[in-house]
Every structure is written in C-alpha cells, then in structure tokens.
Design brief:
The protein has 619 residues and is of the alpha+beta class. The protein has 13 helices and 32 strands. The N terminus and C terminus are likely disordered.
C-alpha cells in the first residue's frame, strides 16, 4: 500500500512541468502578521534587517492617538505601489530584498489582479477542490486541496512594504509568495509584449501559490504532514484549460475552466520565491498546450524529444529574460539546470523531459552567447511559433536554421555550428549498453520503458511498446559472447511485466507503420527471476556473413508488453570467453521458412498509424 501511494505522489511530482525536489531547510524565527482574509507576511529571512521600519509595518495612512485608535479610510489605489521582493531568488541575492514598483492593480482594494495575472493564495483550510481515484486500495484515494482566495492587500499608505518572506520558508499561507508571483508574471508579460509583440490571453492568467493537500491515506504519504494535516508538495506546473479532460489523476486535481499556473509550498521551499521557476511556468503558458504535447513515432521507435523540447524552451525563456543561465538555483537546489553546461544528443538522452531538455536548453544558451540575447530570443521565439503538437529535436533544428537564414548569414553559420556541437542535427537515438545503476548515476534517474497505453497504437499490442531509445553492443576482442542483464520494477505494487529485447546486426531496429512491423533479426524475452532478466548473445549474432568473420555492432531495443511503464534501475554487461554450460543463449539462428512470415519482420495484428503518441502518465 505504501508503495502505491508513493508512486501516485511521485507521479504528481514528476508529471508536472518543473520536476522539482526537496531542498535544505532555511531556519529562522517565525513572526507572522495577520491581515483581513489571511496571513500577509512573516518574520524576516536570514539576511533581512532585524528591525522593521514604520513604513514596512503599516504604511503612513494614519496614526492612533494616546487615547484610542483613529478610524482609517481605505488605502489609496496607487498607480505604482511598492514592495520589497527578490529580483531573482533568495540564494542569488543572499536573502536581501529590493524595493520594486508593482503594476497597478485593477481592483480598487489592491487585491493582486492586473491585465496579465490574477493571483490566489491557497489557504490550508476546508473548502478546496476534492477528487477521488481508485488505485487498488480498500477505498479510493481521496485528495483535497487547500482553499483558493486572494489574500494580499496593501498597507494603509497603498504600498505593500510590510509583506515579508516567511522564515522558515515553509509558511503555507504567506502573502509574500503572492507578491512575488504578481510582480514576476507582470514582468514576464511585458517581456513577451515588448520583445515579441505577443500576448496569449485576453484575460488575466490565473496563478495559485502555496498549494498543499490532504489525503485519507496520511500514513503512507511521501513526506511528513504539517501540524495542520496538510502535506507539502515539491513542484510547480502549468495546467491548460482542457487538460482536465484527460484520464490522468494529476489533471483531475487541477481541473478548471481556464489555464492556470500552480505553485506548491514545499517542506522547506516556497517555489514562488524563485523568479526563474515563475518564468519557466509562464513560458509553458506562452508555448501553449497545442504545441509539444505529444511524443512522436519514427523509424526508430518512440521519440520523446517533443516533451524535452517543451522543457528546454521553457528553461531558455526562464533564463534569458533574467540574464542568468541557471534555472531553479533556489527552487531546484542541487538539481538546478545550468544552461551554460553543454549537453549533447545522444549522450544525454533520458526519458525524463526536464533532463533531456537540457540538450536544447544548453544549445540555445550557447547560441545566445554568440549572437546576443535580443537576436537569439527573437530567432528562438519565431521558430517556436511554428512548432506543432509533436515537433522533434530534428524538426526544431530545421526550423531554427530556417529562421536564422532569414536573419543573416552570420546567424545561420552560428546556429548550424551550435546545433551540430550539441548533436541535435540527425541525432541517432542509440546509446552503448553499459553497466549502469540509477543509485550511482549522475542523473539519479532509472531508465523507463513506456507502456502500451503510453505508446497509443493498438498495433503495438502484438509487438510490444518500444523504448524511447535503442542500445548497441560491440563484441569485445577475444570474447565468445556477452551476457546482458537488466533489473525491472513496476510503478505499482503488482509485479512488472517482463521486457522483450528486439535486436538487429549492423543497423538499428526499424519500425514501419500502417501496418506496423518491425525490421529486426530476432527478439528474445528471457524469464524474470527475482525481477532480473538475463540473456547471452553468442558471437554468431555479431558476425557479418560477408565480412570474412568480421563483427558488426548489435543494435537492440526494449519492448514492453504491459499496460504500465516498466522501470529499469540497473543494467549490466559481461564479456564471456566461453559459453559452455550456459543457458538462455541467443545464437541468432534465422527462423525456419515454415514460420509463415518473412524472416526479420514482425507485423502488428492491428493497423497502426504514424500519428504522434500521447505522453500519458510518463513525466
């Protein structure tokens, strides 16, 4: 049961757009300050001045006399009210805030609504959205969100100078998060309007901060609850208006009648305190749900680069307007994404889109270093407007080159050089089969093989849903074969479906559609023993029949026959000097003619199509 709850929570935290993680606690004294409708702020973070000025405490709208309080009128509605905020995040600015001017609010009472954004605080009290989903337990999993309300109001002088960040940054109701969201979304709106002449919405985008939740299975949740019973969540996301129509339980939680961005309150981190995370989610809103929503199918299987492209583009438009290469230095901490670090395809391929997105993100930042921010921003944005629902890295590269050619020969030369350096032009999605453990890898992520549901084509029921990339093995000198092993786990309590391994000598396994068929030399599905599968490929599998005993590279791809994704946390490879006494040896003998199908192909029983495939539950 605990594993089922944990998987659901991890899906909540990974399916969303930023994929954030728990951070270190920032300690300090709690000094909350109550206002009408909720909590306006809290004591200073470490690095804030210990004292609070009269203006910060309550403005200058009036004073109480010795004999009693003087009735005060409503605060003035200012055209440029002031607040003390972070321009980037608490870490970069050493917890020192800067006085900034806010966009005037459209409400006379100063609640945080402008032409660009309408900000809500999510208060940890009854009245929030509730949903249920059946995950195979005694009773359905029930999740209730906090209650959404516009809380922040100005001081008596019309400014917001008294609203301060909470300390520690785990206050689930603080209004400083509202102000950070309001200020930075308005800045992002102005960036797209002035730099790209682009506005997407005719009404303010809804933004919710401090989101936490309760559940009827509290003992099995991933983290410890607060004293009020609400659980922190480590994430932030953009949810489109019609995304709630999907079957994904994550979407059902946030089903609304309009687009919105959602920022959770973590155990020790308030994600609205990080401007780069706000810009990242706002960039997803600008890209829109009609672009980069699906994975793609091609001759090598399922291409996950459209989802990675979505994350990489959002990272770039989080970094460039803020003129800093790191996304999530505060929000992501040790998993922040530095676009100044080069990532390449296929070396840095991974199913997880935020990590795979670093390839295009770092390429765009390198282009910015060569062409400058203004030119690169315009080139990338104009290319993005031409993206469709499943634009791949290859297609995006071609669109970037086309836009660069329209700009100048210098831009074209620089763009081609950068895309080539990052492996984005004609990237072959194949990695060497190497001994691997997610516990010791640089990413910390296991491999993941998508399910038949993720793949989306009925024809894959006959062949198995393909992995996101292929692998290859070269026979070591003097070896008579190699033993390959892989460990498998399930997303839920049920045992994982064992994986098949399709293989082909000298060329990648090829997929053809309408109808679906695999071009391969063979396929093996070894038994799962203690959730480990092993197979030995004999030397014959590598021999080129026309090469005078020369060997070729053996290419292979996992195929998943189940309806749930299969996690592969470990791989191993071992050269063998002798095959004597071994079982489960694949000799790659050709199938007999009477098998009824042509050697080297396997057809699906139902017709497939070449359409893009929905990402589904895969993060």
């Amino acid at each position: 049961m605990a594993k089922q709850i944990k998987r659901w929570v991890e899906r909540l935290q990974l399916t969303c757009r930023v994929g954030l993680v728990s951070l270190c606690t920032i300690t300090g004294c709690d000094d909350t300050q109550s206002v009408e409708g909720g909590t306006a702020g809290a004591g200073a973070l470490a690095g804030d001045p210990a004292g609070v000025s009269a203006g910060e405490q309550g403005g200058s709208g009036g004073e109480g006399g010795e004999g009693g309080a003087v009735p005060l009128g409503p605060p003035p509605h200012l055209s440029a009210p002031k607040a003390m905020l972070f321009n980037l995040d608490p870490i970069i600015e050493d917890y020192t805030r800067t006085e900034v001017e806010l966009t005037t609010t459209t409400h006379e009472d100063g609640r945080l609504t402008s032409h660009a954004v309408k900000v809500f605080n999510c208060l940890n009290e009854p009245g929030g959205v509730t949903f249920e989903t059946d995950i195979g337990l005694e009773e359905p999993l029930r999740v209730s969100l906090c209650r959404e309300e516009q809380v922040a109001r100005p001081d008596q002088d019309g400014h917001y100078l008294s609203v301060r960040p909470s300390s520690p940054t785990s206050d689930p109701n603080d209004s400083f998060a509202e102000l950070m969201m309001y200020y930075h979304v308005n800045r992002a709106y102005e960036y797209y309007l002035t730099q790209h002449d682009y506005t997407r919405y005719d009404e303010p985008l809804k933004a919710v901060v401090n989101v936490q939740l309760t559940t009827n299975y509290p003992d099995y949740y991933l983290d410890e609850p607060n004293s009020d019973g609400y659980f922190p969540v480590e994430n932030a996301l953009f949810v489109a208006e019609w995304e709630g129509e999907l079957t994904s339980e994550v979407s059902d939680v946030f089903k609304r009648d309009r687009d919105m961005i959602v920022f959770f309150q973590g155990a020790s981190v308030d994600y609205a305190y990080d401007a780069s995370v706000i810009y990242h989610e706002y960039a997803h809103a600008m890209v829109g749900i009609e672009r980069l929503r699906y994975m793609a199918l091609d001759e090598h299987g399922v291409d996950s680069s459209p989802r990675a492209l979505s994350e990489g583009i959002a990272d770039y438009f989080a970094a460039s307007p803020l003129n800093q290469s790191v996304v999530g230095r505060y929000g992501l901490n040790n998993r922040s994404r530095d676009l100044a670090t080069q990532y390449t395809c296929p070396r840095d391929m991974i199913w997880e889109p935020h990590r795979f997105g670093r390839v295009i993100g770092s390429a765009l930042w390198a282009l910015r270093e060569r062409l400058g921010a203004v030119l690169t921003d315009r080139l990338v944005f104009d290319a993005m407007l031409l993206f469709h629902s499943s634009t791949t890295y290859q297609e995006a590269s071609e669109l970037l080159l086309a836009q660069a050619e329209l700009t100048s020969s210098e831009a074209l030369e620089a763009t081609r050089a950068v895309l080539t350096e990052h492996g984005l032009i004609d990237c072959v999605r194949s990695l060497p089969w190497e001994t691997f453990s997610s516990f010791t890898s640089s990413t910390g992520y296991p491999f993941m093989v998508g399910s038949l549901v993720d793949a989306g084509l009925e024809g894959f029921r006959a062949t198995g849903a393909p992995d996101y990339y292929q692998r290859h093995v070269d026979l070591p000198e003097g070896a008579e074969g190699v033993e390959l092993a892989w460990w498998i786990e399930s997303e839920v309590a049920a045992p994982p479906s064992s994986l098949s391994l399709a293989y082909r000598r000298g060329a990648l396994v090829e997929f053809r559609y309408d109808p679906l068929e695999l071009i391969m030399d063979g396929k093996v599905r070894p038994p799962s023993i203690s959730q480990v599968q092993r197979v030995v490929f004999a030397r014959r599998c590598f021999i080129n029949p026309e090469g005078d005993d020369a060997t070729d590279r053996l290419h292979m791809i996992f195929l998943n026959h189940g309806v749930r994704s299969v996690i592969v946390p470990r791989l191993s490879i071992e050269p063998l000097e002798s095959l004597e006494g071994l079982t489960q040896v694949e000799t790659c003998e050709p199938p007999p003619p009477e098998a009824g199908t042509e050697a080297g192909t396997e057809a699906g029983t139902e017709a497939g199509t070449g359409a893009g495939t929905e990402a589904g539950a895969a993060p």
